[in-house]
Recover the amino acids of this structure.
């Protein structure tokens, strides 16, 4: 029983991280109809910025803030310089460009920071909390993961639903040409979408780093799981990203705990196959047309 | 004053417009008429920059519109209601309307314009929280025109607004357009296949055939020219 509880708690914590990266994938997909294969390595790059600053004795939260800012800027720069010129080009081009960026960033990071894995300090204790007389495998750090990703999700939701900027973003995602016809500067909206997506990825990168073998490819597997989460959620919906993330996190945690952790990637593939054969549009995307 | 001068547009080897010129006077309705495929929609799309003309220019007062991005043309006060209306299905009625005025700085006037639009189209006020997808054809047309009006445009380009509307609704729409040109000193370019109802409210008329202007005259003169009507307007 306690094994089950621990696995569930771990699943929720990793699920929130997948949800954060999945949110980035969803934002980019909604804005530009592109799957950003570099989402994980962009997060890796901004996290290396934070780690470098930590090594130079900058405070944890200062480094954290810098990494998020770098993530935001990196997203905007990538959209402006690499993605914008692909408008109106064949659909394969962005696949190749984002995949190329993925290889480039990991290569550059390896050249600058080395490819050996290392440890990264965490903001909070990673030892399990004691509830009553039971020690559970859920730490203060896990609470921080939960809280920070939820806070990001709520902020994004408020931005989308309650602000003029959010209205512009949703309109541009649904109907880019019509949005331009009512005066929306769609180009700027796309840049903002990529920047926010990269910010969500950066947060996940910072949260994963302390409990992984931190090296330039430490986000690769996370991206695969996040992609699973995003597709499960329907690729269109931020709420879908959250639910997809939690679902993926829980299932993979059970697979790892009961069947062996080497089977986790296979578990992700099985989730994808099951969801796609039952509901190809994902769990949370609206039907394309509504009959009235 | 809105002036179109020598506008030529090609889609690959196909010439959609060949040297189209006309002028639209302030606070009037200019009907642009012609058969299917005459180039009417292309003309509007070239005027707002949705397609790039090979030759010619579009000028509005002191502004050269040719070559400007669509969103900047709109921000000069030129509103375009496209064919098929362009209501965004996934947004609510209110969100669609707010979107129309979002580029304007004056927030309190944006609110006022929104309220005025609800007064003008009461059915929209009742459905403000409905999704665009849930509206009827007539309501979608109201929403598309309302969204153009909340930006307080000086020029309104309308592409086939009567398409799919009941004759009574079309008549109400035409009456409203006539009213708006007077009240809001709006210049309207009205593209229509339904020539008879367009001519009933227009002051000027431009007839286009195969991408070229056949005649540009007062609506009264065009409407009474039997040969022209039989040849190009189908009534």
């Amino acid at each position: 029983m306690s094994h089950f509880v621990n696995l569930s708690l771990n699943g929720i914590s990793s699920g929130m991280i997948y949800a954060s990266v999945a949110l980035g994938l969803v934002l980019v997909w909604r804005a530009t109809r592109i799957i950003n294969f570099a989402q994980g390595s962009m997060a890796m790059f901004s996290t290396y910025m934070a780690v470098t600053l930590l090594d130079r004795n900058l405070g944890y939260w200062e480094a954290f803030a810098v990494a998020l800012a770098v993530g935001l800027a990196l997203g905007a720069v990538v959209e402006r310089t690499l993605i914008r010129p692909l408008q109106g080009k064949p659909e394969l081009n962005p696949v190749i460009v984002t995949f190329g960026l993925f290889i480039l960033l990991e290569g550059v990071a390896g050249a600058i920071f080395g490819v050996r894995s290392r440890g990264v300090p965490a903001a909070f204790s990673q030892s399990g909390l004691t509830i009553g007389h039971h020690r559970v495998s859920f730490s203060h750090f896990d609470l921080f993961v939960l809280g920070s990703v939820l806070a990001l999700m709520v902020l994004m939701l408020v931005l989308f639903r309650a602000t003029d900027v959010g209205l512009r973003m949703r309109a541009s995602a649904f109907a880019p040409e019509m949005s331009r016809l009512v005066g929306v500067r769609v180009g700027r909206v796309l840049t903002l979408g990529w920047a926010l997506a990269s910010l969500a990825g950066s947060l996940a990168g910072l949260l994963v780093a302390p409990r992984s073998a931190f090296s330039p490819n430490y986000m690769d597997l996370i991206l695969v799981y996040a992609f699973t989460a995003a597709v499960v959620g329907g690729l269109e919906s931020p709420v879908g990203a959250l639910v997809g993330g939690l679902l993926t996190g829980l299932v993979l945690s059970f697979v790892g705990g009961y069947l062996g952790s080497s089977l986790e990637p296979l578990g992700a593939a099985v989730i994808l196959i099951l969801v796609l054969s039952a509901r190809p549009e994902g769990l949370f995307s609206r039907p394309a047309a509504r009959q009235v | 004053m809105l002036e179109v001068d020598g506008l030529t547009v090609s889609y690959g080897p196909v010439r959609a417009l060949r040297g189209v010129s006309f002028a639209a006077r302030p606070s009037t309705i200019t009907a642009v008429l012609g058969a299917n495929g005459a180039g009417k929609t292309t003309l509007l799309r070239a005027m707002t920059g949705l397609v790039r003309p090979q030759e010619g220019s579009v000028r509005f007062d002191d502004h050269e519109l040719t070559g400007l991005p669509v969103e900047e043309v709109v921000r000069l006060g030129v509103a375009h209601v496209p064919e098929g209306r362009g209501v965004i299905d996934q947004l609510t009625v209110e969100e669609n309307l707010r979107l129309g005025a979002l580029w304007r700085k004056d927030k309190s006037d944006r609110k006022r314009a929104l309220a005025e639009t609800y007064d003008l189209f009461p059915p929209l006020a009742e459905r403000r929280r409905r999704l665009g997808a849930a509206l009827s054809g007539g309501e979608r047309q109201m929403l598309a025109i309302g969204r153009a009006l909340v930006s307080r445009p000086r020029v309104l380009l309308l592409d086939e607004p009567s398409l799919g509307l009941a004759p009574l609704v079309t008549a109400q729409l035409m009456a409203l357009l006539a009213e708006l040109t007077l009240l809001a000193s709006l210049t309207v370019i009205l593209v229509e296949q339904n020539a008879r109802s367009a001519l009933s409210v227009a002051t000027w008329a431009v007839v286009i055939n195969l991408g070229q202007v056949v005649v540009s005259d007062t609506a009264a003169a065009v409407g009474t020219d039997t040969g022209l009507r039989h040849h190009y307007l189908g009534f």
Notes: DSSP finds eleven helices and two strands in chain A. Chain A touches chain B through 21 residues (CB under 8 Å).
